[in-house]
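To: structure desk
From: M.T.
Subject: fold request, one chain
Message: Could you run this one when you get a chance? Sequence is below, nothing fancy, just the single chain.
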Amino acid sequence: MPRIDIELNPVDDITTDAIGQPGERSFYLQANKGDQTVTLLLEKIQIQSLAVAVEQFLAEIKQDNPEIPDASSQYKEDEMHLKHPFEPLFRVGDFGLGYDSSEDLVILVLREAGLVNEEVEETRAVRLWCTRSQIRRMVHWGIELANRGRSVCPLCGEVINPGGHFCPKNNGHKKSHEMNDGKTGNS
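Reply: Done. Structure tokens follow.
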């Protein structure tokens, strides 16, 4: 059972962001309340999974409570970046979502990743209470960030690193896949 180390109820702000170049980025989730800031390290796939989970969860909340207004996904990019300091408390292993209908707040619980092959009696966790619009803006921004990453090879579907990649559809020749007049082939 995770131990709740930090609880921000409610958060003033919550965001995801990435630091580094595509292919070498580190992804973070950060929330603050007053002068308390919590920063957590996570993977790009976790941001994408969280976005799907949040959208499904918000749809269920709306279905059960049709009288509540829709949550906004509109954000201002300059307000979505990390604030210093952003030293992560821990790496996220998994997350959970809850809803407090009396306060109309979504509860996001982020649990620390356990250590492989070592006994861990209890992991740490952070509980963040957010408006439906705050969490929806955060995941929409997170998807925007994820989509700003490396491009995908149109031939093989693999991710293209800044220096190119060895494309099996191109007989393994290294190619940067700069789109030269739309032609592809063995070059």
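Reply (cont.): Residues 176-187 have pLDDT under 50 and may be disordered. Let me know if you need anything else for the meeting.
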